[in-house]
Amino acid sequence: MHSNSSKNTWLLIMVASLGYFVDIYDLIIFSIVRVRSFQDIGVPEELMRVKGEFVLNMQMGGLLLGGLIWGVIADKYGRIKVLFGSILLYSLANIYNGFVHDVTTYAVVRFIAGIGLAGELGAGITLVSESMHRSKRGYGTMLVAGVGVLGAILAYFVSEWFDWRTAYFVGGGMGILLLMMRVGTFESGLFAQAVESTHVQKGSLKLLFSHPERIKRYFYCLGIGLPIWFVVGVLVTQAPEIGAALGATTTLSAGKGVMFTYLGISVGDFIAGLLSQWLKSRKKVVFLCQILILISSLWYLNSEGIGENKFMFLAFFMGIGVGYWATFVTIAAEQFGTNLRATVATTAPNFVRGALIPSTLLYGYFVGVWGIIPAAIVTLLLLTGIAIFALTQLEESFDKDLNYYEE
Known about the structure:
By secondary structure, this protein is mainly α. It contains 20 helices and no strands. The protein has a single domain, classed as Growth Hormone, Chain: A, CATH 1.20.1250. The relative contact order is 0.14.
């Protein structure tokens, strides 16, 4: 019986890992093929940036809305239903994306894809966390994220080898194949118990935001993730502009930078997962990652005359620092009871992704005041400071019993 249970758990980890792999591929494929796809559908050169921001913000809006929808569904009706529904939605959206011929349709399809993409990681992490022994679940969530972020590497190479439309078809096709693999996966035992407890309120946003202490706990969970997307979305994505401000010897490639950063994130996820098991603490690991983010990012932002090779190395190094992504989602899941766990684990990563919008606005304001490099340093220090403070306010959740409800 134990052997069968262990086999089922490994199947769950594999299915969740591959799901996140496809999720990451589909999440960043637009950023990679944006220029080529826009050129193909006739977007003028001077509108590339504005139209690109419009489509990306539509996808981001879908992620924010989807986080709420799938989180509530996962707590009310089950984690498995989200794993099926979300992947079906974003796979079909990505296949359709390969047929678009105008920016408006492109944006609407990315919005729908964003809704689908929002459900994958939170439901997968929740299911794995609830299905493993509490002293070992860090290994499971480490594998899910460590394998998952490698989807970014595949996205880069597929976009290099094939036409942009084919790149979308590949993403949608992988999702449909994975959907077939998911037949036979089992529901979380803790969720099954919650279903039997008819008096327990499940998946309620009102319950989440009805108590001051719960609200604070939720916002502290969001706070520890703030530096992640600033590093990826600004420091690496805006590498050409930052490189120019540093007097780079060549134009830095954002595409290659993103690939090396995600490679670092994958390595970082494994390191953070192993360290949290060895130190028996998630908080210590997140603190070490914040220090690593500061060291690597400040090194990058002080590299006068930076060359391409040094940028690739620093992008990888920064990726290791922000590789506590899985640990961040695991902490969020472990801070709340079974009846709100999936809602938090699904909304938290999407809200942190969405927090890139106010972060970039703040950064943009600072750029106008001090210039690119000082603005990046100040914003980084501010976000990291918030993350470290939020971390001190959360209880240690390693080896915490998750079999309880929020009243």
